[in-house]
Automatic annotation (TrEMBL):
It comes from Streptomonospora mangrovi. This is S-methylmethionine:homocysteine methyltransferase. The keyword Transmembrane helix does not apply. GO terms for biological process: methionine biosynthetic process; methylation; S-methylmethionine cycle. Binds 1 zinc ion per subunit. The keyword Metal-binding applies.
Amino acid sequence: MDSLLPERGVLVLDGGLATRLEDLGCDLSDDLWSARLLQDDPALIRRAHRDFFAAGADVAVSAAYQASVPGFTRRGLGAAEARALIVRSVELARQARDEHGGGLVAAGIGPYGAARADGSEYTGAYDLDEDGLVAWHRERWHLLADSGADLMACETVPSAAEARALVRLLEETPHIGAWVSFSCRDGEHISDGTPLADCAAALARHPRVLAVGVNCTPPRHIPALLGRISGVPAVAYPNSGEQWDPRARRWRGARDPVAFGAAARDWRAAGAALIGGCCRTTPEHIRQIRAHLD
């Protein structure tokens, strides 16, 4: 991990890719979410990546969070075209990186729950055991590991079993490393109730687990959660702090990029070496993170 970190000892990640795409006018209200645009409007994905790089991000996470071969084939695509679209997610991020003039590209590995599109990435209530999760992730994992990405970003992982499954796949691709980032229910536990400290301790033993941390979790929990991680660099990219109202189908609260950027200093002091934003965070949030950290 040390070889990836700049002299200042922190990498700034990008923000909410889907949020940026929605702000650019996209309707992402289907099961594929932002992955739909890998087929329908790849140039817009490239633009969103470029916007985050321009705001100060060092790392772009590719638009593969909700992408899967079964998901694309359910829409009538052939398996070969589905595989090509998954690889395209990294190609678009690399193009944006090159247009910007530098940075890293992480291949986005969303959880099984993201492909189910039923909210289970925030509960870990799955119908697959660890072996089943290895089998489900394997094809996409190898496609992205061989896509030219600099590393893998295993994100919004809700369960200890899924984290173990992803590390088993990491063993199959010795040429690349990964970070593992969990969705968390509070300041101590990941979404399935496992203590984050236990997950971090197990993952820290693997030499190619580059960082362990938290994403898509309210900012108020981040300092306590970072305190549960030791023996490995920490990654933190929470959501904006707004709350989704499922009845009104709207976000409640206000986006405050300045406060978010100021909080990033506390996350850095708590040990985070990779810091960015998740849902509802924008290029302005990333600009404020960069300003406050610099």
